[in-house]
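Progress against Task 2.4 (sequence-to-structure conversion) is shown through the following example record, which the project officer requested during the mid-term review.
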Amino acid sequence: MRLFFILSLAFNVFFSTAQQDPHLFVRPFIGTAEAGHTYPGATVPFGAVQLSPDTDTIPFAVAGQYQPEVYRYCAGYQYKDSSIVGFSHTHFSGTGHSDLGDILIMPNRGVVQWNPGTAQAPEKGYRSTYHHDEQAQPGYYGVHLDEVGVDVELTTTKRVGVHRYRLQDSDSAHFVLDLTHGIYNYEGKNVWCFLRVENDTLLTGYKQTNGWGRTRTIYFAIALSVPLTSYQIKDLKPAMYKGFWRKFDTEHRFAEGAGQGLKAALFFGAVNEVEFRVALSGVSIEGALGNLVSEAPIAGFDTYRTAAEKEWDNAFSIIKDVSFLHYQDQITFYTAWYHSLIGSTLFMDVDSSYRGLDQRIHKAEGFTNYTTFSLWDTYRAEQPFLNLFYPKVNADMIESMQQHYSQSVHHMLPVWSHYANENWCMIGYHAVSVMADAVVKQNPYLRDPERFLWSAVETSNQRFYEGLGAYLDLGYVPEDQSGSSVSKTLEYAYDDWCIAQMATVFKQDSVAQLYNKRAQNFQNVFDVQTGFMRPRLSNGNFKTSFDPLDTHGQGFIEGNAWNYSFYAPQAPQNLIEQMGGEARFVAHLDSLFTMSLPDRYFANTEDIMRSGIIGNYVHGNEPSHHIPYFYNFTTQPWKTQAATRMILREQYSLNSEGMGGNDDCGQMSAWYLFSALGLYPFAPGSANYALTAPLVKEATIQLDGQHLLQIVTENNSDQNVYIQSVYWNGKRLSKPFISHLDLIQGGELHFVMGPKPSKKAFIVSKTN
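Structure tokens generated for the chain above:
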């Protein structure tokens, strides 16, 4: 059965033709509109090219000061904007910081304008207004540009962006190729650009930037379907020293250009249609040419569009059947699934060459090399999602992380890496969680996995890293030595537990013992007097000034003491006891969802809005994502069921806001997918999933091309949100958990639902 998914950009549903069955739809804007953290363009699953419109060029800083407005343009696009600057080839999906936006192409007419202009006066630049008559489906994007009268269509292969421009009037039409354009640009970010006109249908070059990835070079080769009649190359930031190039007119039909401010204007004469095929490489111009010849050797937009559709059909084909209480939920489900497959990206040429962290060229022997690892976010649900449903992809990503470690002069696994760079964003060393989760769950595609244990051990002992030296000496990170100290302590302790799980698998008993002990360090920042996790100082005292509702200056990052005090997924029963036993713990947990968080506590936080908060539970930021499942470790697991159903309904919608926080490379979407299916990886590194009330009525998913996982619900409705009983292959479960090792064998997970909590749904165990 061929699956065909349409992304409705204008938020009206486009129905597919009768033979395209079933009618399943995806919307690309599940992501906070104000933050602007999704891009609506064309890509294939995990594609190196994410070809998308950029709607503004807000700089990172003005007069040397950070400009908060830039945060809305993390992905380059804002649905509410009325003009498009152009179409660039690389984007992040759902991150709270940014980079990329490489190799921008934009049609224009009349006198060449080298700058994009402003949203208030688009006619003073090369940008164009549009009226949101956008259309998109996975692998395709189309829009009409008003001023220039051009219909734009975009599609991609893995490494090549394919553009088709249909001009209503070719008189005075031209195209701007802007190599200086980027997302989160600032003075000096563009280190150097190079452009070479090889002939009248082929351009090559590269762009080097110093941004979030401080040493990032992207090479390109651009094939044109129509020969150039003329061109101009202009450096808008010429160097003081001009050498002997000054004796040439380098701006007019001089076949190469170089500089920090390099742009080109391309003329094709009286034509009505032009295709651009833009191949990217992180290795070399030769690599870009090889990618072009291999993936898009000739003009033929429709051929590449069809191929992209087939790639998405194949990626979605593991979903054999799924049905929901409401059709809107089906749209959201597929949208989330789509987003879970575009965060991390391919990073190697067709010949398996790639640029490593050491800036040397390597060959990916026996694996596919990936980049864009937002690990502080994705270790929680996104990577476990891939491990369950796309285990080969997840194993290749882990191998890519291991190679990062091998190339690291610091001998560390990645923290947040992209494009042969470590940008050190966020905290912890959560690659070890991803590795441990795959090891414990026996991912069959891991190669020599005991290597991962030793790279994790070395990473966990790098004293220079973010208070880790003090953590090793004191058992906690002191706030007077390193900020966000409580968050760091808690996340280091969890990662240490993950290392212990790997050590246990590999029968390294002394290592397991050491790291199980380190995993208990979360207790060292728990203040019995207040009942919260709280920052401590080097002298052992708790920091006196303390507000458990505040994030800033309180020892936390993207969370407050209320939320982070529940961060011990490796030891839920210990945490319950530490908080005074089950009754006090449950009351405390109940309060998190019902209390009110005053606006002042998140007024200065860029990545969260009121819509991302339920009571004081902050779903829009990741440290809280496991919290609703904590009830499963008490005698009141039905509260998990009520909480997750509420979150699914309140935090995910089909309007332009979509969700109440950053998607963060698929993490928010993966939370939705797991919870909608009725299970969640509460503590990655454990082989168990916590159960909850499914949103699906039924779902059948093929695991690794072999066994079928069937999720069946009985009496499921908007009112019947409570589990009465659960059966795995006909056998009733006695606790609200199920093993990954059972699921991957295939079978039926049957939920019986009802309108009231059932104390007899499970015989609750005190173990996880």
